[in-house]
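Blackboard transcription, Thursday session:
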Amino acid sequence: MDTAGESEHGEDKRGTGAIPASVEAAWGLRPRPHKGPKRGLTLEGIVAAAVAVADAEGLEAASMGRVAKELGVSTMALYRYVATKDELVTLMVDGAFGPPPPLPEGVGDDWRAGLRHWYQAIGTAMFAHPWAVAHIPSGGPPVTPNQLAALDQALYVLRDTPLTEFEKVATALLVSNQVRAEVTIALAMGGSADFERLMGEYSHFLLRVSDTGRLPHLRTAVEGGAFDEPDVQAPQKPSDYDEFAFGLERVLDGIQALIDARRPD
Amino acid sequence: MDTAGESEHGEDKRGTGAIPASVEAAWGLRPRPHKGPKRGLTLEGIVAAAVAVADAEGLEAASMGRVAKELGVSTMALYRYVATKDELVTLMVDGAFGPPPPLPEGVGDDWRAGLRHWYQAIGTAMFAHPWAVAHIPSGGPPVTPNQLAALDQALYVLRDTPLTEFEKVATALLVSNQVRAEVTIALAMGGSADFERLMGEYSHFLLRVSDTGRLPHLRTAVEGGAFDEPDVQAPQKPSDYDEFAFGLERVLDGIQALIDARRPD
DNA sequence: GCAGTAGTGCGTAAGGCATACGCAGAAAAC
DNA sequence: GTTTTCTGCGTATGCCTTACGCACTACTGC
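(Written on the board underneath:)
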């Protein structure tokens, strides 16, 4: 697993640098080999089948054997397209998100509205594929086509701001981290179904563990209604995923402050 | 896995509400049972052994069998203390972080400095136990002792701000998400060792995939030096983990803006 | 046409994993 | 002293990923 070096079996583990070969294939960077028999499968097909299984039955159901069965091939056949299960998961996440939806007319001219839209689009996609949320940051910086397309979109939204290119990228990462965190906790809370009950149980638990003088400030917060104010809304279904979440607005304000400082006139 | 109900085997899966029994045990909320033979192990001991294995050889090495062997007991003995592997992992993460270090003198009076310190303390702990980073948000809202102790500390820091209790909690979550995201990507980049080389390879890759007119704004960013400006520093070792990261300052600015709006005088 | 050969799918099997279940024995309760 | 309850553990099941080698295919260079 740690050794590089070209093995006879499977694809080369590494393409150029640290990018897995299967990811390069997803970009179309791998030239079609010309010898040998025709390939019976496509990487896209494999990924699509795996995503379908994960959508229907969760990520843990999408084992190599199961995906292969879905495609009518043997388990090991998949390893001609993907060096490791992790690579498949990376591609599955990318495939599940798909290309970012185009920005609505005019929204690209106001960076704040544009980022709100961007945030909501990502959040919606995440809600549609909950299994993909927990695995997004595993592999480090974004390398897959749709993820980078989304990043490109954010950079477009920020094009007229006085931020440096580094700051633009960092801003996009900041916002996307924010979506991810918010969706993660929302999904853990049951996706709005038993939200109120779970929240009630949670705050009850917090009262219980803070009752002997431990965690006095947490207790104050619970008693102050931090977990049952109307502010604590159940995260909504994909179609109307709350785009004015607390965290997002704070982040946007923070970026606003930087922009104002950079452009005082 | 989905059915609740009390089974004869293992601990009850659920204590009160959705809190696992082992987590309640970690809080000392479980009364000692009085019948039966004395227990040969302690939950703390199991968690400590598991953390030691994970620290030395990574999370995947810390299997139930391995941890049991480390303690000189059989694999199944552990299931008298923990209902499931996931519960153990939850407790491992909490155990790895340990109690939050006390705030230095005076820093508790300035919320901004206090949150910076808080951020740095969490980041330092994460760097010391990289395996724990990927699993923090898995189980939903924080329920374990040390995690909630850290939350309590953040609420202490924010005690004199005009924020509502809900907003204080949300702020703490916001900052902790930020640490987590930043540390995750830093660790993926090799923990500052090959940072420069990997960053170079990454930006080279980005140039390659954006060369046919795809991702024009990303290409602009790369060419604009978004990935090799001096701003892009190698994340430092635990002792001096960069506490003035871009994301953190944006978040703090955003909170500042809210505070200013709330307290205009 | 006809080798040579690189690349194909796949069968087998190894080694790991979490964990269901039942049992023998220990210690407290009555 | 009997009963009850909880202990640790042996056994076994059914997963999982993936190493390896084999038989075959279809293209290349002659």
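Lecturer's comment: Residues 107-192+234-262 of chain B form a domain with the Tetracycline Repressor; domain 2 fold (CATH 1.10.357).
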